[in-house]
Amino acid sequence: MSPPFELAFKYMPTPAFIIESHTGKLLAYNRNFEVLFENFNATPADTWDTLCEDAVSLKDWASLNEQIQNGHINRCESLIRVGDKLINMQLEMQAMGDSVLACVYNTDHMDLAAAENTLLKFALTESSAGLWIWEVESDLVSCSKSIASLLHCSLEKTPHSTEEWHKIVHPDDVKRLARLVDEHVTHNQEHYEVEYRILRSDQSYLWVKEHGKTYSKDANGKVKKIVGFVVDISHQKALEEHLRNQATFDELTGLLTRGAAITHFKKQLGLAKRQYTPLTMAKIHLDAQNRLNTLPMEARNIAIQTSARYIYKKIREADVLARVEPDKLLLLLPNTSVKDAKTLLNHIIHPKEDEKTTLLEGNSDPMDFCIGIAVFPEDGETIEELALSANQAVENGQEKNKQISVN
């Protein structure tokens, strides 16, 4: 080293030493590394295999050096001989061509705050982050206060082991989380990311995203500590659920949308084909008299909503009802003949007195309904063909002023 760098190395605040790559010899160590040994009336060893309890021979250094040079290890933990003591130290290794710079951190009494500071840039990319550190071999989990806040509990009641952590993970998510973390440790990976639900002290589940990062490895490259954080993503999940519902359910009526209904229709059609059972489709025009078009938008929406809810209550559990146009519904009646379909639909166009009162209060009148019926397989062998036949039946019914029309 040149004199300026030699002086900087000697007085750098972090204990450090330099090892010759091909021999494992200690070429130099700074003042703070020397002080560690002076506290125990000792001096540093001359080679890696005599300094490190984990190393049996220089072959161990050769193996470790190869991983450092290849960039596979930049942190490791080792038992360092300091006089007659063995001190667990975390070593940050930096390849420097023919030598390796090792910066030392005593990890026997590692403070979680130190881990948080080390991962400051890692954590600042997220909000409401709860930090944790996991010592793999001892299975000790340490949580920060932010995790306690996230779980609505005291710091003492946060999980202290993987078993305790898994107890508060949703049963449907725990196997996936455990498998992903096991793979991370088994394959000595650098980081992972997973979403799951976690139980809070009020017994409610919170969606979180967990980011884990290998914090240190041993001299053999095995993961020793993992540090990470969990982030509250419940608002994001709520938005995703809302968007899924919007894509699946009609916002005004709550019925299935056309696209979502097709999946159910095709499933029922497949069953009818395999089991040779009847299948009937009904197209329901809610405004065959064009009365709703004369109403203000708000009143028209109330009428459509009222009609849809009324019809939904009248159908059976196995039936599938969808809003396919602003004023048209499509009803699939599995295992139903034309005769049975007519009976059900007649109950719809002829409401009871209390039902009629509710409909009229909601601007709806069953006399406006016109229903076209199509039957599998006579009127079509696909959902699209049946829908076209049912639509044609509606048009025929309007022309002939019939409320129920069969193709």
Gyration radius (Cα, Å) is 36 Å
| Strand segment count | 16
What do the pLDDT scores average to? 86
Task: Label the CATH architecture of the largest domain.
Answer: 2-Layer Sandwich
Low-confidence stretches: 108-128
Please give the count of helices: 15
CATH fold-level label of the largest domain: Alpha-Beta Plaits
Whole-number tally of structural domains: 3
Tell me the structural class: alpha+beta
Please report which band the strand proportion falls in: under 5%, 5-15%, 15-25%, 25-35%, 35-45% or over 45%: 25-35%
Bin the helical content: 25-40%
Please, what is the CATH homologous superfamily of the largest domain?
Reverse transcriptase/Diguanylate cyclase domain
Q: What's the shape?
A: elongated
Largest sheet: 10 strands, mixed
What is the level 1 CATH name of the largest domain? Answer: Alpha Beta
Ends apart, CA distance between termini: 95 Å
Oligomer: single chain
Task: Outline the structure in words.
The protein is of the alpha+beta class and 407 residues long. The chain has three domains: 3-106, Beta-Lactamase; 112-237, PAS domain (Beta-Lactamase); 249-406, Reverse transcriptase/Diguanylate cyclase domain (Alpha-Beta Plaits). Helices cover 39% and strands 28% of the residues. The chain contains 15 helices and 16 strands. The chain has helices at residues 3-11, 31-38, 48-51, 58-69, 112-118, 120-124, 145-151, 162-167, 174-186, 234-248, 258-275, 297-314, 338-349, 353-361, 383-399; strands spanning 16-20, 26-29, 75-82, 85-96, 99-106, 129-135, 140-143, 191-199, 205-218, 223-232, 256-257, 279-285, 320-325, 328-334, 370-376, 404-406. The strands form two sheets. Strands 1, 2, 3, 4, 5, 6, 7, 8, 9 and 10 form a ten-stranded mixed β-sheet that branches. The model is unreliable at 108-128 (pLDDT under 50).
